[in-house]
Amino acid sequence: MKSRSGGRWVITASRRFNHPDGSFAGVALTTIDVAYFLQFYRGFDIGPNGSIALASADGIILILARSPDDGSYTGRDLSGAPLFRNLRERPAAGAYYFKSPLNDVQRLSFYKLSNRYPVIVVATPIRA
User: Fold this and answer.
1) Alpha-carbon distance 93 to 76, whole Å?
2) Is 76 domain-assigned?
3) pTM higher than 0.70 for the full model?
């Protein structure tokens, strides 16, 4: 989501806390600036036309580090793409050959669905 205070893309995370008897004790909330992940993902050599995406399991792009990157992909809804339409029927990790919904280019990517959080990482290294 975009931060109301600064207008930058952020990822929010929250956690419920309970009293020892199980009753509600409060919520902790934090935000992580998307720029942190972009810098982290740019440290990987994915080639001149590769990409690394962190997306919600329902298909919303949270971060897309790609080359070239114009910053227009964060927040895009890819829930209609085949990977997300049947994500729960797939193995938690694997290879994925598809026509990119972002630029109509055929790609071979590798994905990993988190077993702890509702996010998926999709990496597409391209050398040529």
Assistant:
1) 22
2) yes
3) yes
Number of domains in the chain: 1
Per-residue pLDDT of the chain (128 residues; tens, 9 = 90+): 777 777 777 888 889 999 999 999 999 998 888 788 878 887 888 887 788 888 888 888 877 776 556 667 778 888 888 888 888 889 999 998 888 777 788 888 999 999 988 889 999 887 65
Residue 20 falls inside a structural domain: no
29 belongs to a structural domain: no
Asked if the structure places residue 62 within a domain, the reply is yes
Q: CATH number of the domain that 100 lies in?
A: 3.30.450.20
Residue 62 near residue 74, CB atoms below 8 Å? yes
Domain extent for 44: 34-124
**Please, which residues have CB within 8 angstroms of residue 73's CB and are 6 or more apart in sequence?**
53, 61, 64, 66, 102
10 Å CB burial of residue 32 (0-12, 13-18, 19+) is middle
Query: First vs last Cα of the chain: how many Å apart?
Result: 34
